[in-house]
C-alpha cells in the first residue's frame, strides 16, 4: 500500500500545476477578455442558434484567402453561451477550460514520450507562459488549436488512427494552418509503415469534418476549392528568396516568445544591448540543445512535428502572427522539459528560474481593459437615445466591427434595421427616421461620411451628441431644411 502511494508522488505536483493553470486562465476573465469584432460576430451567430434556432454549417471567415472555416467552434461555444444566459463570458470560460486541459495533456504526452519529471516540468512551464495564457482567456477559434494539435500527436503515438482523423477534422475547422498537421500525420504513418490504416484516418476525418462537409457537398465545395487554390497557386504561398529566413524566424520566435517572454518586434529597439544578447543567446542555445537531446531520444514523431511545421511555414509569404504557432504551442515546452531533465540539478535550477520569470509576466498585473463591460455600456447608452424606436446604425472605426454593439442591441430586443440598396428596397422601407452613429475615433464628422450605413440613410442633420468613455454617440435624422 505504501509503495502504491509512493508511485503516485506525481499527482500532488500535477494537481498544483492544474490549479495554478486554472487560476491564471479564469481569474477575472470578464475584465480581461478580448471582446472586439470577431468575438461579437461569433456570439451573435451562436445567440441566434440558441434563441432563434438558426443552426449553421458555416464557420467564421479565415483571416486570409477569402474562404470560410467550418462551424465546429460555434458548437463548442453554444452550451457555454447558453449556460451563462447569453453572457459572452461563457465561451471565454470554455476556452480557458480547454487551456487547462491542454496543460494536463502536456503532462500526459511528456510523461508518455519521456518521463513523469519531463511531463511535470513541461506542464508547469506551459501553465505559466504569458503568451499561452493570453490566448487562453478569450473566445476565439484559433485558441483551441493547441489542444487539438497535441491530442492529435497523442493519438498518433498511441496508434489511435480513427481518433487522430477526428482531431484533424476538428482542427481544420478551427484554423486553416492546421493543414500542416495533415503532413505530420502522413509522414508519421509512412515512417511507421501504417499507411494501410490510412482508411481509419480518413474515416475519422470525415466524422470530425462532417458539419462543414455537409455544407461543402450541398454547395459544390466552394471553400475547399478556394483553399486548394490558396495553398497551391496563391501569391501568399510557394518557394521564395526568404524561405530559410522565415524558417529561422519561426524557430526563434516560437521558442523565444513561448518560453522566454521574448518581446515582439516593436519593442526590440527599446531594449539594452545586454538584454538583446541574453534573449538571443538563451533562445538559440535552447533550440539547438533541446533538438540535440530529442535526436538522442529518437522520438521521431516529435521531430516530424517540429520539422514539418517549421519547413511548411517557410513557404508562407504573409505575416506570421504569434497565434499561428498554436499548432506547435506545446512542443517547445516538451523539448525544454527534456533538456532540463538531462541537465539534472542545473536543469532544476533553470526550470525554477524560468517558472518565476514567467510568473512575473502574468496578464493581470495591470488593470483590466473591461472591453466587454465597455461595449455593453456603450450599446445600452446608444439604445437609450434611440428611445425605443426603430433605428438604423453605423459604426465609424479604424478597425473594429459593429457586431460588438449589434449583439447587445439584439439582447435588448431592439436590433437596428439594416439599410438595403435600392434594387432590393426601391421604396426605402429599410430606412428609418433616425440613424444612431457610434464613433470610436478621436475626431469624428458623421455628416457626409462615405460609410454605406450613413450614405444610405440620405441627407441628414445631427439632433444629439453624447460623450461616452472611449466613444462619441450621434443621433441623426433626415434633413428638413429651413
Q: Structural class of the secondary structure composition?
A: mainly alpha
Tell me the overall shape: globular
Given as residue ranges, the uncertain stretches (5+ residues, pLDDT < 50) are: none
- N-to-C order of helices and strands: HHHHHHHHHHHHHHHHHHHHEHEHEE
Radius of gyration: 25 Å
Mean pLDDT: 91
Task: Tally the helices.
Answer: 22
Secondary structure: number of strands: 4
The count of domains is 2
What is the terminal separation in angstroms? 94 Å
Proportion of strand residues: 5-15%
Helix residue percentage: 55-70%
Biggest sheet overview: 4 strands, mixed
Strand order of the largest sheet: 1-2-4-3
GO molecular function, one term: pentosyltransferase activity
Subcellular location: Cell membrane
Organism: Candidatus Gottesmanbacteria bacterium RIFOXYB1_FULL_47_11
Pfam family, one: PMT_2
In short:
GO terms for molecular function: pentosyltransferase activity. By secondary structure, the chain is mostly helical.
Account of the protein in words:
This protein is mostly helical and 482 residues long. The chain folds into 2 domains: 2-365, no CATH class; 371-478. It has 22 helices and 4 strands. The chain has helices at 2-7, 11-26, 29-32, 37-51, 72-83, 89-113, 116-128, 130-134, 145-157, 161-174, 179-191, 198-219, 222-233, 243-259, 265-268, 273-297, 300-313, 330-342, 345-359, 371-386, 403-411, 452-455; strands spanning 392-396, 434-439, 460-468, 471-478. Strands 1-2-4-3 form a 4-stranded mixed sheet. Strand 1 (392-396), helix 21 and strand 2 form a beta-alpha-beta unit. Helix 14 (243-259) crosses helix 16 and helix 20 crosses helix 21 (403-411). The N and C termini lie far apart (94 Å). 41% of the residues are buried. The model has no long low-confidence stretch (mean pLDDT 91). It is a multi-pass membrane protein. This is Glycosyltransferase RgtA/B/C/D-like domain-containing protein. InterPro entries: LipidA_mod_glycosyltrf_83, RgtA/B/C-like.
